[in-house]
Amino acid sequence: MMNFRPSINFARLNAQLEMLASVNRQEDGSCCRLALTDADRDGRDLVVSWMRDAGLEIQIDRIGNIFGVRAGHEAGPPVMTGSHIDTVATGGRYDGAYGVLAGLEVIRALNDFGVKTKRPIVLGIFTNEEGVRFQPDMMGSLVFAGGMALDEALAVRAEDGAILGDELARIGHAGSIEIGSLRPHAFVELHIEQGPVLDRANARLGAVENLQGISWKRITIRGTSNHAGTTPMNLRHDAGYCAARITTFLHDLAKKMGGSQVATVGSLTLAPNLVNVIARKAVLTVDLRNTAEEKLQEAENRLDEMLDELQSSEGVAIDCAVLARFSPVVFDDRIVALIENVARELQQPIRRMTSGAGHDAQMIARISPAAMIFVPSVAGVSHNPSEFTRPEDLENGANILLHTLVKLSDPTN
Ligand code: HGY
Ligand code: MN
Ligand code: MN
């Protein structure tokens, strides 16, 4: 460890977390900066201005990923940190933003303490991590890692009809840097846990060693509208009933499978959506996750079987579109061990853990050694305006990130 201890300025970090959270804040306190909307543009422009103030050289690639480069003594592959600043529609102030702004605070702390690292340090902001408006999620980092073709990503159409490439140009963030030109030497993402593990264990830090597989589908059920009062139950082709059957089937399946299996029907629309009309159409999304690939496939297979049964028993037509499918990821154990060592040298207890949520780090792990640092989410709440992490944990996580990046940049530090 260096013979002196640079540390972050938490007041400065917290002030920026508050300012970013205020961009398009909703009445209920939600952060609502859906990818490539005006609100996302305003958040991007604000953070880029702060990155420039911190002396970073800004590079934006062709999928809109933003990189701030801090030169090191040597050129070559940088040590990279970063996350996302787009949010779900009912987002909290820390999901993604904390990793980006803590990374920026690390840069400022290195400036304040006059520390020039051996390798360049790069702060990344990845496009469309949430995948709410344009699927799949973690799209910017997926394209950056070569997991999705740029043209395919630029052509993705949102529910609202917008085309991703058009939106990127409209908000002025269609960069010219070729994809993947800043290949990292190593990548560490700092993020709130978004789950209850650390909070329940009264633990303050997590060294994330693996991350769940994700399966997103959009299911469209087509039945027959009919009169709610005159149609006998055995003559119905009720899309609304089928949607409810799928929802309860998946909930019960996940509980029966146990382990890390989770299943969510997060969005459901019925048509014509009227009190006295049997629904002719239902569109629902399914989010399945598991740390084990074979278990995730088992859940997907059981769903497919159930849909086949429903089609014949209820006389409906069911179509499935895959929105995202990522296998579980195991992070680089050397980076995980380094994070643990840094925590120990700072006398901070830390525990290894799994990430239930998807993160950009899982995509960067395809092209560079990567791992994550978690800080607790109070009551495990996230994707909710009441998301909260204690100030001391926010500060602690940022200091662990600082020393991890310095060590990655020059192990002799
Ligand atoms: O879905 C996820 O886990 C992440 O928030 N995009
Ligand atoms: Mn996130
Ligand atoms: Mn999220």
Description:
This protein has 413 residues and is of the alpha/beta class. The chain has helices at 10-21, 38-53, 97-112, 139-144, 150-154, 164-170, 197-200, 239-257, 293-314, 333-345, 360-364, 391-409; strands at 57-60, 66-70, 79-83, 121-125, 186-192, 206-211, 213-222, 262-264, 268-271, 281-290, 317-326, 329-330, 351-355, 370-375. The strands form 2 sheets. Strands 1, 2, 3, 4, 5, 6, 12, 13 and 14 form a 9-stranded mixed β-sheet that branches. Helix 3 (97-112) links the parallel strand 3 and strand 4 (121-125). Helix 3 (97-112) packs across helix 12 (391-409), helix 8 packs antiparallel against helix 9 and helix 10 packs across helix 12 (391-409). The longest helix is centred in the last third of the chain and has 22 residues, at 293-314. It starts with 9 loop residues before the first helix and ends with a helix. The model has no long low-confidence stretch (mean pLDDT 97). The structure holds (2S)-amino(hydroxy)ethanoic acid and manganese (II) ion (2 copies). One manganese (II) ion (MN) is lined by residues 84, 95-96, 129, 191, 359. Residues 88, 95, 130, 383 line the site of one manganese (II) ion.
The N- and C-terminal alpha carbons lie at a distance of 5 Å
Mean pLDDT value:
97
Assign the structural class, choosing from mainly alpha, mainly beta, alpha/beta, alpha+beta, or little secondary structure: alpha/beta
Q: What is the global morphology?
A: elongated
User: Cofactors and ligands present?
Assistant: (2S)-amino(hydroxy)ethanoic acid, manganese (II) ion
**Total number of strands:** 14
Q: Residue share in helices?
A: 25-40%
Low-confidence stretches: none
- Let me know the largest β-sheet: 9 strands, mixed
* β-strand amount: 15-25%
What's the helix-strand series?
Answer: HHEEEHEHHHEHEEHEEEHEEHEHEH
Q: Count of helices?
A: 12
Q: What is the radius of gyration?
A: 23 Å
